[in-house]
Design goal:
CATH class of the largest domain: Alpha Beta
CATH superfamily of the largest domain: Cytidine Deaminase, domain 2
Number of helices: 8
Radius of gyration: 20 Å
Largest sheet: 6 strands, mixed
CATH architecture of the largest domain: 3-Layer(aba) Sandwich
Amino acid sequence: MDPDPVLEVSPGAAEVPLTVLKIRDEAAIEAADQFAVEEPLEIRLAGIAFTVTMRTPGDDEDLVAGLLYAEGIIREAESLDVIARYRGPEGGTDPGNVINVILKGDLRIARERLRRSLVATSACGVCGKVTIGAIRNACGPMRSDALVPAGLFHRLATSLAAAQATFQRTGGLHAAGLFDLDGRLLVLREDVGRHNAVDKVVGHMLRGRRVPLERHILMVSGRVSFEIMQKAWNARIPIVAAVSAPSSMAVQMALAAGITLVGFLRRGGFNVYAGAHRVATVVPEPA
């Protein structure tokens, strides 16, 4: 095996091959394997640097739209004028890792939202009740009459796993899937970052003029974090489900938002951490 291998990653590729040494029962064999690609994506607003995020290439326009929506830079799809690969000095489109966004409307409002977003994301003390209160004021309470049977959630997990094509080859990606209340998978996105996967899903629906999402279910392949719940609340998704358990802040966010939070999906059942009134056959939470 090459002692100093170089990964040759094709532009825009989501995975890359490499020969690895596999140890099985004290035997060693060389075998071909696939790895999920992780590369930086620089996002510019009217040519001015906004942020850099590490992501798996693919559906970058959805990622950018979802991230700008989650950060409050835009409030609707109509605010987006152009999302395009950055054009280099010779005028050609750069197929790499820079995307430029042109917004419609009053740029002063966008800049003010950008300033507030950067202040919030750079301040380590924003977590907790103060942040949840601020998000509640910005998003408002969740109002949705969605109701789903308890048996639906294992179908969601099965559908999500079956649709994770790149994960099946690499084992190194998170996934987020958006389902309707009948359990039909509408869109699935994979990424090395669980937050990116959610942004790609929301961004796809936003660009299709299908946000808010009051009658949908978000399913994620890993644990549920505070940020994922915030993105769901912002997109008005009433039910969030996960294979793993949520963090304490995710549960607090779900309770504050009125979002149904399901996790720790296993063959024998699952846990409902908040919003049990939307899960049929589960005893409703006390008023």
